[in-house]
Amino acid sequence: MTETIFDLPVEKQIFYAVLGFSWTVYLWEAYLAYRQRRIYRTTTHVPQELGKIMDTETFEKSRLYQLDKSNFSFWSGLYSETEGTFILLLGGIPFLWDVAGSVTAHFGFGPAYEISQSLVFLTLATLFSALTGLPWSIYNTFVIEEKHGFNQQTLGFFLKDAMKKFVVTQCILLPVTSLLLYIIKIGGDYFFIYAWLFTLGVSLVLVTIYADYIAPLFDKFTPLPEGELKTGIEAMAKSISFPLTKVYVVEGSKRSSHSNAYFYGFFKNKRIVLFDTLLEDYSPLNKTGEPQPEQAETDDTPSETKAKPKNKKQGCNNPEILAVLGHELGHWKLGHTVKNIVISQMNSFLCFFLFAVLIGQKELFLAFGFHDSQPTLIGLMIIFQFIFSPYNELLSFCLTVLSRRFEFQADAFARAMGKASELYSALIKLNKDNLGFPVADWLFSMWHYSHPPLLERLRALGNVKQD
């Protein structure tokens, strides 16, 4: 059998190697998930080490939530892998390319207009992906997240949001892709350098404008009111020379009760964004039953989200929020953000260089059913998505390991700022609010967790006495 495979034409060897590796990765991921599900099923009592930081009720809720998520991930992953396999076996990619060609021909654009055909292909491919993924997303939101008390959306709000995301994505993706393809076409022997510089520029622009112009299309951002918290944030930023200009609160509670915080911006224009669900004194989820001020009717009216009673206090108090931000600012002060950008761009340059080396190999196109043409967009898809997949898996694992190292360093930075006790209690609260399960299979954790498990982070912070 081995000799038979190696006797096949090169394009067939490439095709079966891609398909075989894809299923190998899926089976590996499925095995890891099985190990973790076994932990969820068998760890039904709070381990002694966690007895002081997690009550039985929360432990059971988080166990059931993570078990449901894992079961859902198994079935959605199996569907995704099966769908991808059938697309490859049945020639779905060249078929869709031909459909795109028929559409452009209908408007008078022949085969010479490759970029136009590429944009139609991309639109059809992303539309297909959005439609096939929609039922899974609906089930995840309105069955799993709803069952465990996280979903705050109505179906109407969800669908309108999905349509808005699709349109905004196309408005960014299509112009960027057309310019990238044009650069590759006219760039000559060193097109990979120009393509890399272009994608670098685009990524920097998107990072700069995202929170100011794109994110507000979906969520409401308001300046953090003057008070103790804002004063504390500004003082902490000043103490480490963080060039803070604005602090925003984003209305994440209209979608989910999960919480988050992040900062963005370049050079002397840094901004911090806090989810309202992170703020104990700000979260609407803590105000159920309290009189609410009347609000003017907007595009996102309150009727589109659900006000649900909560049995727990959501979020962190001000000292804990400052500790969480101390951790986040630690990433900046320790250069983690810059290091991640450098690694990302080095990887991007390498990939474009290897793309330049491989794009002339007609066997790559023959392997995926392109016998009469070698479209640039298809070449990008084949090489970046399929040929580079072993490298991408290895890189992903290395970045996961690096991320965990960075998280420990950022925790240590917050501790050095004198916020160990507050960060300790904040991590416990956030784990409880988000129903994180604190027990993990070592292999699953090593491969998947970009953040260290809760117990490891608490141990690293030290034996801080909790009230």
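(ticket continues) Second input and output from the same batch:
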Amino acid sequence: RGRAAARRARRSSSNVFSMFEQSQIQEFKEAFSCIDQNRDGIITKADLKETYSQLGKTNVSDNELEEMLKEGKGPINFTVFLTLFGEKLNGTDPEESILNAFKLFDPAGTGTVNKEEFKQLLLTQADKFSPEEVEQMFALTPIDVSGNIDYKSLCYIITHGDEKE
């Protein structure tokens, strides 16, 4: 079983490296190294448990960890790790993800968010924007006469580029 699994892993991942840019692969390598606590080249249940513990999450069940490991369909070496991320990332539509994020700020479903409220969020929450970054973003943002951002158009600009550029 082990040899067949290794052959399958090799076959299914032969072009996984072409899915990412070199800088992305390097970032994944760093992440893999952080998770691979014992540095043996394979992510195990103990590695995951220790990683979660370092992140302050100590209540992860063995069952949850085993479910994560099952996604690799065998030992999770770096190539399998990269393949799993490739599958996850290729299954997401960035435009849809961004739209869903905006919808959180539009409970009425109008397709718009208030510019001033959104500006406050950008300046004060999570990865805070600088006032200059906010102004740069608003320069490309479709804003109506009542000061609302058309976030569907903004999502298109973010994912496809601005036709004026």
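Agent notes: Residues 39 and 124 are 39 Å apart (CA to CA). Residues 8-13 have pLDDT under 50 and may be disordered. Closing as not reproducible unless the customer responds.
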